[in-house]
Write a structure and sequence with these properties.
- By secondary structure, the protein is α/β, with parallel strands linked by helices.
- It has two domains: 4-111 and 365-395, Enolase-like, domain 1 (2-Layer Sandwich), CATH 3.30.390.10; 116-356, TIM Barrel (Alpha-Beta Barrel), CATH 3.20.20.120.
- 33% of the residues lie in helices and 20% in strands.
- The strands form two sheets. Strands 4, 5, 6, 7, 8, 9, 10, 11 and 12 form a nine-stranded mixed sheet that branches. It has a five-stranded antiparallel sheet with strand order 3-2-1-13-14, with helices on both faces.
- A hairpin with a 3-residue loop joins strand 13 (377-384) and strand 14 (388-390).
- It binds magnesium ion.
């Protein structure tokens, strides 16, 4: 039996090619993508990786717990992994994002992609392009044409204005301009409120109903997160009211029990949990099973980094929904591109005319570019079965490398 021999934690910051202003952080502009990376290694040399969005240095101290919980343990015992990952959650720090690193090892030990290990078929994935920024109508129509020409059949846009008439115009006019060419969906990003500079718009049920009416009339594919994530009763009322599918579920960090409750209440037509937040691969697949039994729809949320994209792709491929639902492909140039999103992977997840072939490599299906990781990442914790090393000084300098990673040849 393989055992966990070592654990490393990194903070990675990769520069974006242009400033990026995510619709879900009002007033905020990013120049980099920041995330934590975990590298597990077994005593027979198999490595497993996972990664999770970093807000600052909030996970600087998690290494000691991980060393205590996992060194010397069987990496294929996922039930034990989840039991242990729950423990720091009782203190407020949810870490289900680490579970996929164990699946990565489990797949590599079995010589199979994780979705195959979980019974999924190698179904080519149809992708929808997921824009990340609010734009005025003219810029949005230009973007729609660009995605259409690249081969996408659906683009998800963002709205986030105080004036609901502006939001409605931002879906109506592009939908009309691209009618018959490109289907639109819309993400309202009302599930959580995160502002970097001044207040942001906060919708109530009445506004959400009016917006769903407008989205239906504009023939949109779905309306995503039009209400705050804990308003379960109002979500269920809106879903029953709306003539267009209502979707959401990406950040429900309590995992399976919370999403089970939401499926039972029929809060959404389309459940879009992100395994990195919603309980790892195992719990998110349990959600997919309940969604199927309830006659609702399921797909993945993937807006984080190239590893989060991979993990949720395996979930979708194993869920039974891969041939029915489009998968989110974050793409919001010039700031958010596949190369920037996936810059520590040897190969970015590039689409081909809006489709993606499932990975064939064992495990989660990507390889880490060690030169890129050394350039953009700072290791802040290392442990093996005899030595632990916490390196807080590596977190003091949070400046982002501005030069590209040196490449051989
Ligand atoms: Mg979303």
């Amino acid at each position: 039996m393989s055992r966990i021999e070592s654990i490393e934690l990194y903070l990675v910051q990769t520069p974006l090619p242009a400033p990026f202003s995510p619709a879900w952080v009002v007033g905020g502009t990013r120049s980099s993508s920041a995330y934590y990376l975990i590298r597990l290694r077994t005593d027979d040399g198999v490595e497993g990786f996972s990664a999770f969005t970093a807000m600052g240095r909030e996970r600087a101290g998690i290494g000691d717990f991980l060393a205590h919980a996992f060194l010397g343990k069987d990496p294929t015992d996922i039930d034990h992994v989840l039991e242990m990952l729950r423990v720091p959650g009782y203190g407020g720090l949810r870490n289900f994002w680490i579970e996929p690193a164990f699946w990565d090892i489990k797949g590599k030990l079995a010589g199979q992609p994780v979705y195959r290990l979980l019974g999924g078929e190698p179904t080519p994935l149809r992708l929808y392009a997921s824009s990340g920024e609010v734009k005025d109508v003219g810029a949005r129509i230009d973007e729609c044409w660009a995605r259409h020409e690249e081969g996408f059949s659906t683009l998800k846009v963002r709205v986030h204005d105080f004036d609901e008439r502006v939001d409605i115009r931002q879906i109506q006019e592009p939908a009309e301009a691209l009618r018959g060419k490109l289907k639109l969906a819309v993400d309202c990003n009302q599930a959580f409120w995160h502002t970097a500079n001044g207040p942001g718009p906060k919708w109530d049920l009445a506004r959400a109903k009016r917006f769903c009416d407008a989205a239906y009339e504009a023939d949109l594919a779905w309306v995503e997160e039009p209400l705050f994530m804990e308003w379960y009763d109002q979500m269920a009322e809106l879903r029953a009211y709306s003539r267009v599918d209502v979707s959401g579920g990406e950040l429900h960090t309590c995992g399976f029990p919370e999403l089970k409750y939401m499926v039972e209440k029929r809060c959404y037509d389309i459940f879009q949990p992100d395994a990195m937040w919603t309980g790892g691969i195992s719990q998110t697949l349990q959600v997919a099973k309940l969604v199927r039994e309830a006659g609702l729809k399921f797909t993945g949320h993937s807006w984080s980094n190239g590893i989060g994209f991979a993990v949720n792709m395996h979930v979708l491929l194993a869920s039974g929904f891969a041939s029915e639902m489009e998968y989110e492909y974050p793409l919001s140039p010039p700031g958010w591109t596949a190369e920037a999103r996936d810059s520590i992977l040897t190969e970015p997840w590039r689409h081909d005319r809006g489709t993606l072939q499932p990975p064939t490599l064992p495990g989660l299906g990507f390889e880490i570019d060690e030169a890129a990781l050394a350039h953009y990442g700072r290791c802040f914790f290392k442990a093996n079965r005899t030595v632990r090393s916490w390196m807080p000084e590596s977190l003091h300098d949070l400046s982002i490398p501005t030069t590209p990673v040196p490449r051989e040849g």
